[in-house]
Design brief:
Elements lengths: L3 E5 L6 H12 L2 E4 H7 L3 E5 L4 E4 L1 H13 L5 E4 L11 E8 L2 H10 L4 H12 L2 H10 L4 E5 L5 H12 L11 H7 L9
The structure holds adenosine-5'-triphosphate (ATP) and magnesium ion (MG).
Adenosine-5'-triphosphate (ATP) binds next to helix 1 and helix 7.
């Protein structure tokens, strides 16, 4: 019954790009959570403070379960709240990580307001999506992939490895230590 690979991570790390390529190259059925939420009317409004959509979680969970039961196919489910996927379907969760400095540039490039850039970069530094994935699916089902410095082809290869169970176990990526070592932590703590 476990027919889903979850790809999660902070907004901007490259989830959708990678998931589309894996679906195309390896024949997965793809569920993009943001698109599904829109399609099924599971957007419960807009949070004015963070400028992000509010998800009707119960409704979206039902729709994910319905989609995953609908076909005897293997699925990739991608989105930054991947922990919403009912765990009984989840074979593996892959958390894509990205150096906070690169993530910040990408999010600025998207035209996000400063507050939204800061919020997401801090979430990346604090392992927010990783923690959610481990809580939802258990440590043994979760692997990290560090996308820093990888082009799409290399990143797809690493995610494929992680799907097969080879890769970085939870806790391997540690931005706090790395930024500290490089004298770059303080600029993120405003
Ligand atoms: N390996 C990569 N190297 C360079 N740029 C990349 C790479 N992967 C993705 N990008 C670029 O980064 C941006 C964000 O990618 P993408 O939309 O896939 O992220 P996401 O994790 O799905 O974000 P969101 O959670 O907001 O949907 C895009 O402009 C994409 O082209
Ligand atoms: Mg996306």
């Amino acid at each position: 019954m476990r027919n889903a690979i979850v790809i999660t991570g902070t907004p901007g790390v490259g989830k959708t790009t990678v998931a589309r390529e894996l679906a195309r190259a390896d024949g997965y059925r793809l569920i993009e959570l943001n698109s599904l939420a829109k399609e099924v009317g599971a957007l419960a409004g807009q949070d004015p403070e963070v400028g992000a959509a509010i998800i009707d979680e119960a409704k979206l969970k039902r729709e994910i379960a319905r989609a995953l039961k609908s076909e005897a196919a293997k699925f990739i489910v991608e989105g930054h709240y991947g922990e919403i996927v009912p765990p009984r379907f989840v074979e593996r969760a892959v958390v894509i990580r990205l150096d906070p400095r690169i993530l910040r540039e990408r999010l600025i490039g998207r035209g996000y307001p400063q507050s939204k850039v800061d919020e997401n970069v801090q979430a990346e530094i604090l392992d927010s999506c990783l923690v959610s994935a481990v809580e939802a699916f258990g440590e043994g089902a979760v692997l990290e992939v560090d996308a820093t410095g990888l082009d799409l082809r290399q990143l797809v290869m690493d995610v494929r490895e992680a799907i097969s169970g080879r890769g970085l176990t939870p806790g391997s990526v540690n931005w706090v230590t790395q930024l500290q070592k490089e004298g770059a932590l303080l600029e993120f703590l405003r």
